[in-house]
Amino acid sequence: MGAGVLMAVLGAILTFAVRVDAPGVDLQVVGVILMVAGGAVIAYARRTVEREHVVTQVETPTDPAAPQHSVRQVVRDTERD
To answer: Where is this region: Disordered (predicted)?
Structure first.
């Protein structure tokens, strides 16, 4: 996701802050293209990120002399939206 943010920031700088006439290159158009590409990279990264959460289950036995048993499990949600 960092690459997308970098592309978007560089695109914004080229579009809004740089006032240079480069022959054969329109820096404002290049900046807009970089901002759109950076936004696409950010959206893709957010969509494909693997989410995980921890589930802790405590089982209390029926015998009071027996110790409690707990299970800690990391569940990864790889389902894509």
So the answer is: 57-81
Q: What is the number of domains present in the chain?
A: 1
Q: Which pLDDT score is estimated for 81?
A: 47
Give me the residue label for tokens 């405590």.
58
Rounded Cα distance, 62 and 67, in Å: 10
Residue 30, in any domain of the structure: yes
Supply the pTM of this predicted model.
0.62
- Domain of 16, in residue numbers: 2-48
What pLDDT score does 78 carry? 62
53 lies in a domain?
A: no
pLDDT of residue 18: 93
Q: Count the residues in the chain.
A: 81
Query: What is the rounded distance in angstroms from the CA atom of residue 50 to the CA atom of residue 74?
Result: 12
CA distances from 71 to 51, 54, 61, 63, 66 (A): 20, 10, 14, 19, 16
